[in-house]
Write a structure and sequence with these properties.
11% of the residues lie in helices and 43% in strands. The protein has 283 residues and is mainly beta. A hairpin with a 5-residue loop joins strand 4 (127-141) and strand 5 (147-161). The two termini are 38 Å apart.
Amino acid sequence: MRKLLFTCLATILCTMVQAQQLPHYSQYMLNGFLVNPAVAGSENYVDVKMGWRNQWTGLEGAPESMYLTAHLPLNKTDNRATASSFPSRWQNGRKALYEEYRKKDFHREQGHHGAGLTVQLDKAGVLKRSDAGLTYAYHLPVSRSLKLAGGFSAGVSVYKVDQSRLKLTDPNDPTYTSGYHDRVQPNITVGTLLYSKRYYVGATAAQLFQDELALEENQGNDVDRAQAHYALTGGYKVVLSPAVSLLPSTLIKYVPSAPVAADVNLKVLYRDFLWAGASYRKR
């Protein structure tokens, strides 16, 4: 009977691994680097962000996700950034920014590099996943106003079962003591980004190593393997006046074993320091 219960628990965990492989952050528009490694170095400053998400508050074992990201440009000689960038202090006021968006006579600059790091923690029930990775990107001007970036992130993912939270009738059951073990997997993410000060379009392929994820012995079917995650992003900045601008954006995610998920967001910015927005997600 205990072995049957243990097998049922293992099946539930494997289902969680399949369905909850990568965390989803609703505020993707605030941290494009978390979605696409090609964003590394696109800003005119060192970008450091932290985030936390807790779903189904009040329910024990509810999914919880946290992250810390940082990236910076290297050898960047121009002040161009993406449509979602925070304003730079090099601009002489909001009126100058407004005029800059209206101009089409950009000078072509040399390419530059970007580097960054990402640390993430994702928990659901007794299952934990920790990720750490380093990122490199190269940004190449393709016209007077456009840049094309390509980037990749390489790191590791560590899967664990919090056995202290498992409640079994007999903790000495050999099925339990010899069953679960931690698993360490390599993790590669690649991405590309075409951007200007007005708009951006990006594509990402994450978790390219489709290794076995089973946390117990004698499991090797496709259900227990890592699944590649694909994403498309896009946004367009509409400057209404020196004080007000709009940024509609979208994120479309595809996993071969799951339905396509799409997020649509509209962000309104006022005088470079205040913004409000609304999002809609369809699964």
